[in-house]
Amino acid sequence: MKNTDQTNAFSRLQQEMTDFAKERDWDQFHNPKNLVMALTGEVGELNELFQWLTPEQAENFPADKQEALAHELADIQLYLLRLAEKCHIDLEAACDRKIALNKAKYPVEKCFGKSLKYNEL
Predict the structure, then answer these.
(1) Is the domain of 52 the same as that of 33?
(2) How far is CA 52 from CA 19, 45, 48, 55, in A?
(3) I need a labelling partner for 42 at 20 to 30 A (CA). Which of 83, 84, 93, 109 fits?
(4) 69: domain CATH number?
(5) 3 state DSSP class of 115
(6) What span, in angstroms and rounded, lies between the C-alpha atoms of 46 and 6?
(7) The three-state (H, E, C) secondary structure of 44-113, written as one string
(8) Measured between alpha carbons, how far is 106 from 100 in angstroms, rounded to an integer?
């Protein structure tokens, strides 16, 4: 089921990223390979924020680093949306399909309270 607000948010952000890249003549660099590499770099930066935290510290992320966390999450989301657009993937529809697939692979009655992979249930 399509969430119109989410679809509009994805579309709006994708259009803003397209416009941003075109205004700077960066579209030439935004091919899927380069976008995956940029996305990986941003995930690495997110990883650095959590790298030496205990699980408890990660659950209560330091207030003085919240803005840095928000920036890294936004960078990841924006690169992901740009990559999806360049690869002609409807990200919302892909997420809906993946959630349905995961529900089938991990039925509640088999996996409740377990961290096993679907083929080990």
Answers:
(1) yes
(2) 38, 13, 8, 9
(3) 93
(4) 1.10.287.1080
(5) coil
(6) 24
(7) HHHHHHHCCCCHHHHHCCCHHHHHHHHHHHHHHHHHHHHHHHHCCCCHHHHHHHHHHHHHHHCCHHHHCC
(8) 10
State whether 80 and 21 are in the same domain: yes
Domain range for residue 97?
90-121
Nearest partner of 49 among 33, 63, 31, 30, judged by Cα = 63
pTM of structure: 0.86
Instruction: Give pLDDT tens digits along the chain (121 positions).
Output: 455 566 688 999 999 999 999 999 999 999 999 999 999 999 999 999 999 999 999 999 999 999 999 999 999 999 999 999 999 999 999 999 999 999 999 999 999 999 999 889 9
